[in-house]
Design brief:
By secondary structure, the protein is mainly alpha-helical. The chain contains six helices and two strands, in the order αααββααα. The chain has a two-stranded antiparallel ribbon with strand order 1-2. It is rod-shaped and about 150 Å long.
Length: 213
């Protein structure tokens, strides 16, 4: 007969087993590679999603940050605050004439600044005045003294101390002679550092002395 013999079948059995075994190994390797590739793709996808989320969170954080204005690096900031004077006080400084320190006190300057558009102190009304032998128009506010002015000796020590500093700043700005500025600065320094400041009535005494000077 033409069929396979038992002996031939036994001889072919190892070959069949090896073929099946190799086939299983090949399929297993393919599966391992596919699983690894799938895992790598998943990791890459997760990485992209994470980076996108971090970028979005960073953008949101930037939006929530307080905006800060730009500034000029070369700009110079003044180390003093020049108080706003009345027209009357400004004119007195310009003419280098005596004027009470009360006009330079912070309270007075603050009121002038607040009411500068409505009070008679900044009224735009003009009147005739004689200047250097000639008749000229001048603002009434420039030669109208306040009816609330306090003499120097009636100021509090605190008012006097702040007002004299403002006064010295304005006479420098007004172009007073340097020797006058130095003399006045020295006078005020000696007054405010006098030993009588430690006495019970020393400050009042010094204010009266300043008023006479």
């Amino acid at each position: 007969a033409g069929g396979i013999t038992r002996e031939d079948a036994l001889n072919h059995m190892p070959d069949g087993w090896r073929f099946k075994h190799q086939e299983h190994i090949t399929l297993w390797q393919q599966q391992v590679e596919e699983d690894a590739q799938e895992q790598q793709e998943q990791l890459e996808c997760e990485k992209v999603e994470k980076e996108a989320k971090e970028q979005e969170e960073q953008c949101e954080a930037e939006k929530k940050k307080s905006k800060i204005n730009d500034f000029d690096e070369g700009a110079i900031v003044a180390d003093i605050i020049i108080l706003y004077l009345s027209q009357y006080a400004t004119q007195k400084i310009k003419n280098m004439e005596y004027i009470e320190l009360w006009y330079f006190s912070p309270d007075r300057c603050r009121k002038v600044a607040i009411t500068s558009r409505s009070t008679s102190d900044t009224d735009d009304t003009y009147s005739f005045a004689k200047v250097n032998g000639m008749v000229a128009l001048k603002m009434i506010a420039s030669f109208k003294a306040s009816n609330k002015v306090l003499q120097d000796h009636n100021l509090s020590w605190w008012q006097f101390d702040l007002a004299k500093t403002s006064f010295l700043i304005h006479i420098e700005k007004g172009g007073w002679p340097e020797k006058h500025q130095k003399l006045l600065a020295l006078f005020f320094t000696l007054i405010t550092n006098h030993e009588h400041c430690m006495c019970s009535c020393g400050e009042k005494t010094l204010l009266h002395y300043t008023g006479f000077m």
